[in-house]
Amino acid sequence: xxxxAIIGGTGLTALAGLxxxxxxxxxxxxxxxxxxVQRGHYAGRPVLFLARHGHPHRIPPHQVNYRANLWALKxxxxxxxxxxxxxxxxxxAMGSGHLCVPHQLVDYTWGRGHTFFEGADLEHVTxxxxxxxxxxxxxxxxxxxxxxxxxxxxxxxxxxxxQGPRLETAGEIVRLERDGCDIVGMTGMPxxxxxxxxxxxxxxxxxxxxxxxxxxxxxITMAExxxxxxxxxxxxxxxxAEVLAD
Length: 246
Ligand code: HPA
Prior knowledge:
eleven-stranded mixed sheet
């Protein structure tokens, strides 16, 4: 049976309902992960859980140590990774509360530790194939769970990974839309690429928590984002439980 790891994002710093067996602290060649890796059972199935921003939420997207997080999960025995990400909606179909399992991404982040292939010990440079950044069988497992639960969702979408921590300008969102992006978040990269470098199948379950900048003629507030998160995260938990039970 596959050992799944869940990386919880904003709104999912703890997995309510996780029966915790052990919280394991790791020190990796890349430093310390955001939080201890929690090992336990969810919906009766073994699972690993890591809070991307720490628990409580304290590490902003551009300062997450993605390399340490992925390294620690691999060392903990993860065989596949389901990432949960809060995002802004660009495409009209991506209204607040909507769930999306993206099939592509565009990376606009910069200055993050984004590869394991660097440093003095490196024997040779490896260029991973990243044409299709998300693992298709894992994406299909997520989509199967969403269908069985009859939750409205998009079965594909292009995720724009921005640097943050500020939200985008309306002009930037026009550009991302022109680039073909449907949703926008700050944590999808380099996480997905690092998982690929470690040979770990990786897929993303994105929850739209606000219309992207300029899509509504008003300010986007944290209060609005938190309200959508509070109501939407329950569906995310249902999907995760269903994926594990599959
Ligand atoms: N932009 C970038 N990241 C986000 C957003 C957004 O509008 N909402 C949640 N994460």
